[in-house]
Amino acid sequence: MSRITIIDDENCTMWCYPEKKMIRHEFHQFTHGEPFNNILTQGVEAFKKYGCDRWLSDDRKLNIVHPDNYSWGDKNWAPVILEAGWKYWAVLMPLKTTGQMSSRRLIQYFSEKNVTVQVFEDVDLAMSWLEEQP
Question: What is the pLDDT of residue 41?
Fold first, then answer.
């Protein structure tokens, strides 16, 4: 399986698996503001470029989505990723309770937009689930 590295810095590593139509990110630390927005922007650009329909979010070290980033994502990222054909989302939840609450809001939102979401504790299981989707 070929893998293309989209981002690899102190905040996040992001890969695209073109044959599997999948974007995968792993946050390395709490990230907010423009760096967070830039990560999601680069992700959606790769998502569209490679015809993806699934995303694996490893947010265990993210802690929380900052309210400003939540607002930005609602206005600028969500409409674009949904229009691009996002269908499946595997999530590794933040380890902190506040981050889990934030993630649950996002999961509910995207579930209502017909994205099939599954929460995992293991990245390999999350990858396998995404690979099994039609």
Answer: 98
